[in-house]
Amino acid sequence: MKTTTQTFPLGQIVMTRALASEFNNTKHLHQFVIQSIKRHKSCDWGDTNHHDSEMNDYAVKHKERVLSSYNLPKHINLVGQSRIWIITEWDRSVTTVLFPSDY
Is 50 helix (H, G, I), strand (E, B) or coil? Predict the structure, then answer.
C-alpha cells in the first residue's frame, strides 16, 4: 500500500446500479468500498500495475482522469466479480465506483 500525503478532490461520489445492488446485500462490501475510496483519494492506486500507477500520479498533477483498481478480499464472494474500479473524472466533478463489467 502506497503512503502519501497527497490527495485530490473527488467531487460527487456515485456508484453504478450493479454495485449498489450488491452494496446493500453483501456483508463487508460497504466497508471495503469506503476503505477503497479513502485509498483512492490518498493516491494509493490499489492493485494497478506500475505503469498505471505512474499514469495516475501524473493524472493527479495534471488534472486528468484517475482510475484505481482494488481486488475484492476473499471473504467478499460475488459471482463474476473480482475487483472494483474507482474513476475520478479529469475535472474532479464526480468519482464513480463500479465493477469493471459495468464499464
Answer: helix
**Cell numbers describing residue 1:** 500500500
Give me the residue label for grid cell 475484492: 72
| Cα–Cα distance for residue pair 86/100, rounded to 1 Å | 9
Which of 77, 98, 70 has its CA nearest to residue 27?
77
Whole-angstrom distance, CA of residue 91 vs CA of residue 63 = 7
pTM: 0.92
pLDDT digits (tens, 9 = 90+) for 44-88: 999 999 999 999 999 999 999 999 999 999 999 899 999 999 999
Pairing of strands 66-71, 12-15: unpaired
